[in-house]
Amino acid sequence: MRAAGGVLLVAHLLVVAWITLRPLDVPWVSAANLEPLAGIKADLERGPEQAARQIGGALLLLAPLGVLLPLVGGRLDVSPLASLARTVAAGALLSLAIELLQTGVPGQVVDVDSLLLNTVGVGLAHLAVVPAARARLRRRRCVRPRARRTRDEAPQGATPKIPRVGIAP
């Protein structure tokens, strides 16, 4: 599972890099949005269809990381809150790295709302999938029947202890 998760994670990150870091041939570029929620308000003012496309796209861009990062980690017995915090922090850092790299790409604009929406998308995907999947995997691990032992594989008992002998001078 961990290897498959690693392959999927790398593939997803390559797609995200291609989408967000390729140069765009545009006649003009709008200014960077450094005011939180200003871009979301502008998207909402353009109508519900445009808002759904823009906001939904930003939420979904990094959302698979909410599932893939814990999958690559491979831990079943971990605090749900710690797992969420780790995953959301990693998603936020990756989103910040993408936004910072976009400053040098022609046609790409830095948008703080993308950072916020990408991070929320990672957290929502994590909450929607990971706790239930871990609980199911833990139940499956506990219910798995034990293999029958043959006579040759019978437990041998405790290891004998030898009394300590002092060293002669």
**Count of helical regions:** 6
Indicate the radius of gyration in whole angstroms: 25 Å
Q: What's the helical proportion of residues? A: 55-70%
In quaternary terms, these chains amount to single chain
Strand content: under 5%
Low-confidence stretches: none
Question: Which term fits the overall shape?
Answer: elongated
The total of beta strands comes to: 0
What is the chain-wise order of helices and strands?
HHHHHH
Mean pLDDT: 89
Ends apart, CA distance between termini: 58 Å
The helix-and-strand class reads mainly alpha
Largest sheet: none
What can you tell me about this protein's structure?
This is Glycopeptide antibiotics resistance protein. Keywords: Membrane, Transmembrane, Transmembrane helix. InterPro entries: Teicoplanin_resist-assoc (IPR053150), VanZ-like (IPR006976). By secondary structure, the protein is mostly helical. It has a domain of 118 residues. α3 packs across α6, α4 packs across α5 and α5 runs antiparallel to α6. The longest helix is centred in the last third of the chain and has 32 residues. It is elongated, with a radius of gyration of 25 Å. The protein starts with a helix and ends in a 26-residue tail after the last helix. The model has no long low-confidence stretch (mean pLDDT 89).
